[in-house]
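Give me structure tokens for this 273-residue protein.
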Amino acid sequence: MSSEKRRISNGTIAATAVFTAFVAAATSVFSVYIPATTGYFNVGEIMVYTSALLMGPYVGAFAGGVGSMLSDLSLGYPYYAPGTLLVKGLEGFIVGYLATKTFAKATKAIWRGVALTAGLLFALALSYVGTTFLSGDFSPTFGGVWHLPAYTIDFQVPALFWIALAAVSFVVILLLGLRVETASGLVVLSILAGGIEMVTGYYVYESFVMHLIAPASVVATLAPAAEVPINVAQMLIGLLVSVPLTRSIRRMIARSSTTAGPGASSLGAQETP
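Here you go.
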């Protein structure tokens, strides 16, 4: 093994340890217990995505899975730890692989095709769900608790409303796809792909584990569904923070490398957009 390969290998090992600690810290420092799910809200996705975008799929997988699992154990959620190791590890791998391998050399034409496809799929899904489940007569009631008066509002949502909303959504997504630069758009798409895996993975894991722990409890029935919006929020926060954070770190690395000379730092050497 040459000295250069040994140096890169040692740097990768060191970076893996550092980012694993960052993921564990970000997940543990700010956590909010959620009684409905017996789990907790956290901002660990910020560092899971940052690790994957900067260092690629393997560091992202290890840091995301092991760092998040250590947080579960330290905060007193051991029943989540096995699922977290798999779900967050796969999340980090997906984000890192798509951003640094699959999408790294994508052309503008590919990005526009992706935007067109995503907009079309979203519009079709929205129109189907809206016209099938969210159309017709509705009578929501407000109040009626704590001695407050109850108010019922009757209204109708026509199926045409969802079709029009789907059409508008398609146009908006397509326009955004044409205006957003290719690299940034594909990074966002990579994070969304990993985030969807995380939301789906936890739903499946909780549906299985909660029924083993307490099969007849309300938590076992409601926890998986209640966790979905919480995990979606974690994904969106991770997306909004990790993208500019990654750009800032790359700029700092570029400046320091320019000052110190060629090969001064191996961090961020992954081929990322």
